[in-house]
Each structure stands twice: as structure tokens, then as C-alpha cells.
């Protein structure tokens, strides 16, 4: 069956308006704050501009004020938003809120959607997704989950420690993964819980100092201690949390790729402008063979990453699990984006290293993506296992 990557005219128009907003409104703010903006005033200012431009929350349904884009539509628009570090924040498509909205749309009850999803989609509140734990707990292997949920009268008590919980500082609620049956290492037995920030049993312990700094609300270590929630806090069904995690994590990996691809394009454009104007040894940089090779390799990496992202989106839009295609796209894109930003910085020389342009910030921001959402090594392991299984089945 043919793979169709054609953009609907309405999606193309939305992408164009997003690009205009990013260049005219978002990038000037980004340049003023060095790409790191963690104030509510900035978030509200940018999101108001996106609403005025009619590009806010393009991923959620129209009943929630969005555009209801499918994954292929998101790929086009999210890439344009990602052209700035603050573009996703402006459109309300930044991690972890974007992935949480998708999960809530699919899994939440009508009451949960009204209480949590609707204000989140409107940008009135923020959220976090509390799954990752300090070693030996859940990380690249979610089955190592140690946080425990114990049944109590009328609800559940959560106990455990989480870390690298993006956006948790200032979030209105968390979606917490906890074990309701089995032991660490078991493939099932996890449940998702909606926990309000006002719950005294959920405590922010610290901001973790990291290479990247642009994601709103930081990377946080959380403690769940005697954290009691009602039965209505269960998201989906008890013991089905790992299944629901795949509802969120597969698309969320790809939307990360879309956003970072936009930033890779931005880095390439900065390098192209510099190469066109900078003269050394009697020639413009753009006329030198080694620089031309870096420019060409950037174009190849950007085009290849976009193709892999769109292929994965096409499979997801068809209702397929798309495990192989999302792992391939995530691994390649994370490494390709790093290569593009690194080459772009090299082309710009001392200017690239300086704080006068943002390439140094971009490099710090994209490097952790080779670890977040599953390290490249874990995805390669999964890709290889699937390839071997597929070959074994076809050879029978």
C-alpha cells in the first residue's frame, strides 16, 4: 500500500501561520531569554499570541478548542513550532503536556476529561508524567517499577520516589505510574493515577541540575509518601498501566522528533547564513569543500529524519502499533539532530561557541534526547529483536 505524505491545504496553512508566529513573536522572546523561559508571564504571553494567531493546541480535538490534527498533520505543524525552543510552549504542544493530553483524550473518563484535560488543553494549567524512578527503579525498563499503590478504604495509597519528572514544579497534577500487583521486573501490574498537586502526599524534593534547561518546570525529583487518592483517581483500568503507557509513549516519542527536527532546521539556517557571508582565505565559507560537505550532510540528515517521522506517523494514523517505525525514527532523529546542530556550530566557528547566537544552547538541549524517551541503545535492542522475530516468522 502506498504511503501518502501529502499535507491537507488546511494543515499547510496552519503550518505557515505557525512559522510566521515563531519568527515574528517567539524567536525575539527566545533571544531575549537565551532560550530558557520559566516564568508564567512569558508562558501566558506566548500562548496568548498563539491563540490570537489561531494556531493554539493544534493536536487536541475541536471540542477542546484545537484543530484535531492526525499524526501526519502534527508532524508538519510541530516541526514549524520547534524552529524555536519556545515554539512548542507557545502552541501548548511541549512535553509533557502534549503527551498527557493525548493520553487523557484516549483513556480518561468524561469526568476526568472535564477536570483535567479541558483546563490542560486550554493552557490554564500544566501537568507532569511521573514514571521514571532512581535506580534500581523504572527507567528504560519500565517493568522495574517500584512505586507501590496499596488499596485503602475508598481509594489508594501511593508510596515511592520518582525523578526526572519534567515540568513537575508548578504542575497542577501528575499522572503517576504505580505498581498495584506483582513485583519489580514483572511485565504487568501497573496502574496510572491522577494526583492533584495539592495532595500533601506528593512532594517536590529538588530540581535536578541537567545539561538541558529549556523544558518548562525543570526536571524534578518527587516523593510520594502516604499519598492517598480516591478510586476516581484511577486512569483507565487497574493493572493496565503499562498498556496505557504505550498509548502515550509511542506518539510522544515521535512528537519529540518533530519538535527537535524544527530546531535542527533552525541550526542549519543559522549555519547557511554564516557560510554565505563569512569570508576566509579569499573565499566564502559556502564555497569551501569541507563546509559544503557539512551543509550537505545536514540536509541529508534533516530529510531522512523527516521521512522516518512521517512513515511512523502514517502507521500510527492507520491504527498500527508502529513499535518498529517509532523506535527507528526516534533513534535516527535523536542522533541526526545532534549531528546537524554540532556541524552547524562547527561551521560558525568561534561565533557558534559564543553566547552571541544560540547554537551552544541548542547543542545542550538536544544532547539528552538520545537518552530521554528511551536511550538509543534500548531502541536498537528493540529494533534488532523485532527484526529477528520477523525474519524467523517469514522463513517458516
UniProtKB/TrEMBL annotation:
Task: Please give the cofactor(s) recorded in the UniProt entry for this protein.
Answer: FAD
Record-linked InterPro entries: Acyl-CoA_dehydrogenase, Acyl-CoA_DH_CS, Acyl-CoA_Oxase/DH_mid-dom, Acyl-CoA_Oxase/DH_mid-dom_sf, AcylCo_DH-like_C, AcylCo_DH/oxidase_C, AcylCoA_DH/ox_N, AcylCoA_DH/ox_N_sf
Acyl-CoA dehydrogenase/oxidase C-terminal domain residues are 239-387
Q: Name one Pfam family in it.
A: Acyl-CoA_dh_1
Keyword set for this entry?
FAD, Flavoprotein, Oxidoreductase
Span of domain Acyl-CoA dehydrogenase/oxidase N-terminal? 14-124
Domain Acyl-CoA oxidase/dehydrogenase middle positions: 128-209
Top-level taxon of the source organism: Bacteria
Q: Which PROSITE patterns match?
A: ACYL_COA_DH_2 (PS00073)
Q: Which PANTHER family match?
A: ACYL-COA DEHYDROGENASE FAMILY MEMBER 11, MEDIUM-CHAIN SPECIFIC ACYL-COA DEHYDROGENASE, MITOCHONDRIAL-RELATED
How does it associate, per the subunit comment?
Answer: Homodimer.
**Family according to the record:** Belongs to the acyl-CoA dehydrogenase family.
Question: What is this protein called in UniProt?
Answer: Acyl-CoA dehydrogenase family protein
Record organism: Amycolatopsis acididurans
